[in-house]
User: Fold Glycosyltransferase RgtA/B/C/D-like domain-containing protein from Desulfosporosinus orientis.
Amino acid sequence: MNKRNKVWFTALLFFIALGIQVLYIKSYNAPYFISPDGYHYSNIAENFLNGHGLVNTANFVQGDDGIVREVAQTREYVVGPVYPLLLALVYGLFGFKSYGMVIYLHALLGVASAVLAYKTGELLFGKRYAWIPYGLTLGYPLFAFWGMYVLTETTYVFTITLFLYLLAIYAKEAKRPKLKTLLILGAVIGISNLVRPLLLLFFPVLGLWIWWMQRGKLKIAIRDFTIIVVMTILVMCPWWIRNGIRYHQFIAVSNYGSYEFYLGNNPKTITDSYFYFTQPSYDPEVKGRIEKLPLSEQEKEYKSLGVSYILNHPIQFLQRTFAKEKNLFWQPVTPVFGKAYKMQGYILDQWYLLLGLIGIILSFFQLKKYSFLLIFTVYYSFIVSMITVVSGARYRLPVMPAMVLFASLAVVMFLKGIGRLSRVNPRSSGRI
Assistant:
């Protein structure tokens, strides 16, 4: 009966969240938003359903009038297969270019993220306060807003939320971790990387955290870490093999991004301006030489320049990366940006960040319990700021599940404090 009650309660959480998600979708005049990236993913999904494989056969650009147009293909972009396959599933059921139905798929993933936030809240704060991360997840306007776009954001946020939930389970089971937990954790890391490859560099950090959770028991830590890594490799291996056969080179997930990496680590790049098309670059002669090369060679050259800068200027690299974190990544959505994108409720972003920061400070008093959130938050913000030059809003989105849990910690501690203050100890009265 207890298990059945849990199922019914989870279903209730699901349908409440679904109702809120649908209300948000209906609050917009447009049924969906789509950018050149969205059309790119859509093109891959259509090619897959037409039997051509996970390939793109067109490029898209957005003009000054805001209209996205198809242009002659100048290169084939390889992207992680998970999101195009999800689009293919929707198109297979409802027809090509069913963008409105894609948004409802995003709504389902958003609902699942809220339920996972509740489950994680149970592990961290107990059942009494698990509703707080559930409510904060549903109330964060940027989750819902970017879910209106035909983009990977909602899918990636879901995989990160699931990843954090599994880390919370591992932390609870640390003395006797279950094999099932390790296998699922490795699989989720692999799937998340096949949406976006930003967890690929997380393994050294994860290994050190597992070793610390095992209180220095090296053999157990190596065993757990090995199982996770092997499972991640098994999940990603088919994509590696496919790319090797088709392109005759190793492509971990995608075949682009080196230019952004080169720009992000360029000494001339301005660290408080994110629009990279207007950013200055290296010597025009160097850039001109690179752009005459084949696209695959351009990627290698840009990557080499970025790595060379980091190795030759390590102190300046750290200074610039921290400057980008401060000036770009952790900045709340501004009124100009929010109004330009016609976001609803964007003003709440700054309050989520403030509450999250308070929660981070409080977490240091229970470091063992919340360490997995801290290392992920530090890792993700640093890696994104290291790689490129971006504003917070969209590229900060995947770290917000952790910030929601930190914000929840701040709210929980506040409520507990109010509870202690409001308690009245009755005085014992003597006989008259």
Remarks:
- Residues 428-432 have pLDDT under 50 and may be disordered.
- The CA atoms of residues 80 and 196 lie 6 Å apart.
- Residues 256-418 form one domain.
- The chain has 19 helices and two strands.
